[in-house]
Amino acid sequence: MMVEYTLDVGDNPEPESRLEFLKKLEAFLRKLKDEEIIVSYTLSTPNSKTIIFREKEETK
Asked: What is d(CA 58, CA 39) in angstroms, rounded to the nearest whole number?
């Protein structure tokens, strides 16, 4: 089972202002994926709700 985390960045009136943030976020997520801390990530346009990352749910 996967746990999914989302971030809604659609409330900013200036979408271009989010691009630098999203670039830095993508670099960070890429590093987490390379280290196998997260399973996958997806970033879409700044105007939409975005799946930030998925991780495997811990089994108890």
From this structure: 13
